[in-house]
Amino acid sequence: MRPSGPPRHALILGFAAAVAVVGVACAGANSTRAPKPTTSATQAAAAGTPRPAATPTRAPADPKLAASLRYAGEYEKAIDVYAAVATADAGQPRQDALFAQAQLLSRTGRFAEARDALQSWLAIAGAAGAGSAAQYMLASTFDDLGDPASALAAYDTYIAAGGAAADFAGIERAKMLARLGRTVDAEAAAEAVIASNIGASFKASFTFSIAAAFEQGGVDANALNWYNRVAITPGGDVGSALARIGGIKKRLGDASWTADYLRAITEYPGSGSAPDLLTALDAAAVPVDDYVRGLVDYRARRDADATPALQRAIAAGAHPAEARYYLAAIEERAGDTEAAIADYALVPQTDAASPLAADALWWRGRLLDGKGDYAGAAADYSQLASQYPSSSRAADAAFRKSLAAYRSGDKATAIGGWAALAARTSGDDNLRARYWQGRTLIEQNGSANNSVLTTLAADAPDNYYGLRAQVLLKQNDTNDSAPKLDDSAPDWKKIAAWVQEQTGELPATPRFGQDLRWGQAVALADVGLGAQSDRLFEEIIVADDGDAVALYQVTKQLSDDGRTSLAARAATRLIAAGLKKTPAPPTDLLRLAYPVVYKDLVSQATAQEKVSPMLLLALVRQESYYNPDAGSSAGALGLTQVVPSTGASIAKSLGRASFTATDLFRPNVNLLFGADYLASQLADFKSDPYRALAAYNGGPGVASDAITMSGGDEDLFVEDLEFDQTQTYVKRVMENYARYRQIYQRLDAPSLPQ
Hints:
- By secondary structure, the chain is mainly alpha-helical.
- Among the domains are: 17-164, Serine Threonine Protein Phosphatase 5, Tetratricopeptide repeat; 492-593, no CATH class; 599-744, Lysozyme, CATH 1.10.530.
- The protein is built from 39 helices and two strands.
- Strands 1-2 form a two-stranded antiparallel ribbon.
- The longest helix has 21 residues, at 724-744.
């Protein structure tokens, strides 16, 4: 769950709200297709003020203006315009405006006003509104207002009327009954949820949340029962459940709480609660295994406490290899490279079967690489690849063994190693080995004519290594003309014709009409459960993977509904599902997979910060897949995944007096902040996009360390990035960038600028 963002019952923020009597047919939370903005809407978006002051003039009754303001993130202004529409119009336009107004009022925490707008909507709808999205939203709004009696009554009305999201209303109703201490009713409601048709992942999260609700309601016996059920529920958060079980028992004076805490920190030492549990056990003078203690403290970055505990574990022979590994990691973290190298070497020597032996060889090899001991690094990589072939690092180790030979000047050995690796691997491992084999052949032979790279560029024209092969062969398109950003609707006839060429079948009647999940996903989006809705839509997309006809139908419907993020995901799979590979996917399909979201906002932000709009869009695709409500476990928010602390610094530098973390969910704020941060990294790293992107994702220190190792070599820089996540991030954003250049600079194929 995000640390901040929309309220608990976050309402959807699609740009339109066409409200039907029994449901709301409006775009999902990830809808990013803009309505055509009026001049005033464009100016408001450019201003980008999170909380604009009320204007003395009356807001115009203009639904298109309201939709544009909402799309950009100018929620307060949009609320005023929707209110004017609701006052000026009647019939369906009034209902649409009331519902949209209620969504935004709830989004901005104005729950009492949201309640009033929803009640007005329902008063007009009459009895037919009982199973509508407005009824569900009214129930959740009462909950947000702290009025459980009214909320329960509203949920009961919705469920009795057979609302499309009734199962999820049942979840909220059960939790509310538990919080109120209505034990018998809550238990019955909870069991009904478990017996319902919702997916297993939803049931797993519900099992924990109903336990928490019983705990909040002071019903300890029921809370313990449900927390215990978490431990046997597939996908359950067992570590957190054990911590809560122990906490309840401790409060009740049950001495067995210590066993629960001990199990929690032993099995889940990296959980957020583990340090506090360890502190509680120490306060109670409960013995804790030194290895477990050291691991918990290491995970919590309490290195001064972790070190002696790990040393005692080694001396006692308790997990000595693993304790040695974490001791080496602490030394590396402290900058004591020599000690870390020595201790990593002892891990496989102590226990060659240790689950951390391969990792120890990997990190020792990386440290030796960093200090220029390529022979020592190659020996470690060789040992890892040969002795631990099932390790996730085996292929990387084989690659870096050859890279170490390359760096030491033994190019013949490097070429042979990469050729052998390419012969036995697939995917990125294969392409990377072929690229470096070809690059080294060019260096060795002094010729740009290279069959390895030529074949690679032809085989993988949109992969990072295929794109880099084009650069080395000087086949990349260096066109630097201004892009023509196109966000118009696609020509579906062209896309259908391409699908027919690939499959022999002309897409016609949608197959997903038979899939009950589709209707449920739409209903969940309608009532504001965007994350749950997206999960179901993604299940449908994945289920159709490889079926071009089905993916065409899903992509078209998602696009027609304005669910841009999901449509992009489906379009990407549709492109991959092409069986013949020729002809190439039509530009209209490519634009769906790589859309120009928030065209005006992107143009304004990139012009102000002097960065490429295509590079920013490529970054947005990787960061959030165009979902403005995206959030990460690390606390990064919005389209460009800005961390709130960084957002506060950017706000200060831009002279914004008022900023809160939730402003990062506003596209007009987030895109400008992301562009500003990207621009600062480009400035710090001499306009090099590879280094700037590494700094954006992993931090400037990660980029600087890789620069130190690689010098001015761009390819070595990417390979020397310490974190796999950052290395993958740079590759994927540059792939996206090549596609954006192809589509919006009218190039013949994906191409990197340099």
